[in-house]
Write a structure and sequence with these properties.
It comes from Pacificispira spongiicola. This protein is of the alpha/beta class. It contains 11 helices and 9 strands. The radius of gyration is 18 Å and the shape is globular. It binds S-adenosylmethionine (SAM).
Length: 251
């Protein structure tokens, strides 16, 4: 399924972005899931962390807007549903809603947060991590500039919501949550290969707006301009990730 001009292919995702779920364990620890708890994994992707929560004894449901990701999660035996996180339909069923690396793809944060509040039981918690202010700033600026040069509106192409702590705290509180913790975490992240894999996996909303005849050339130019900034002395690509990690309880 294509959301925000972005297609989520489970095989490509596992190959280029397996680190996303691997680096999600601190937020699982923040969730502190208890055996038998009903948990919603919001934007569960292919279900790598959903499966971890299930293995910890939780009764987990995953939801994601991508049909292909949900198909993969179901093949792995998970209870997973295709659903837009900005239009959740659950009501008072979960002890906790968990989310890793998904909320920044949803540009209507208030719709997400109110759907989460509705999905939770009284006193339920919302614990997550996603891209915060300054996330992948170097990559984002390069992509925005690259499409603008070819007459594409960078605001329309940009699929991300990377809020500040103040912005997200205010939205959580307005929806009736008490914020237990919220912080921005700089997390420079080594990529499993060349930046081209990252651009193909996460940069589609920009690159798909370009004429196919200039797409490859644009990626080649991006690689050349980013190499001096985003590789370490051994030539390993390091992406400038900044995460916003939070834990909130429904008042
Ligand atoms: C980077 S992946 C993270 C997946 C998983 N949580 C993990 O940690 O590996 C982002 C996921 O957000 C999902 N997503 C994007 N927009 C969404 C929306 N509006 N509603 C639900 N899921 C969405 C994508 O389909 C994708 O699977």
């Amino acid at each position: 399924m294509t959301i925000a001009n972005q297609h989520w292919d489970p095989d490509r995702y596992r190959q280029n972005a397996g680190f996303v779920a691997e680096l999600g364990m601190p937020v699982v620890e923040l969730l502190a899931p208890q055996r038998g708890e009903r948990i919603l994994d919001l934007g569960c992707g292919d279900g790598a962390l959903t499966a971890k929560l299930a293995a910890m004894g939780c009764v987990v449901t995953g939801c994601d807007a991508s049909v292909d990701q949900i198909r993969k999660a179901r093949e792995d035996g998970l209870d997973a549903h295709v659903m837009d996180g900005q239009a959740l339909t659950f009501e008072g069923e979960f002890d906790a809603v968990f989310s890793n690396a998904a909320l920044h793809w949803m540009k209507k944060p208030d719709a997400v947060i109110s759907g989460v509040a509705k999905a939770l039981k009284p006193g339920g918690r919302f614990v997550g991590e996603f891209g915060g202010a300054g996330n992948v700033q170097t990559l984002r600026t390069a992509l925005r500039t690259a499409v603008a040069v070819h007459g594409v509106d960078p605001d329309a192409a940009d699929p991300w919501y990377f809020p500040t702590v103040e912005d997200y705290r205010a939205r959580l509180e307005a929806a009736g949550f008490n914020v237990r913790s919220i912080e921005l975490i700089e997390r420079p992240t080594p990529l499993p290969g060349d930046v081209g894999g990252w651009l193909a996996t996460f940069g589609e909303s920009f690159l798909n707006r370009l004429d196919p005849t200039i797409r490859e050339g644009t990626v080649t130019a991006l690689r050349a301009s980013l190499r001096p900034v985003l590789t370490d002395p051994d030539g390993v690509w390091i992406a400038d990730y900044v995460r916003l990690r939070f834990s909130a309880v429904l008042a």
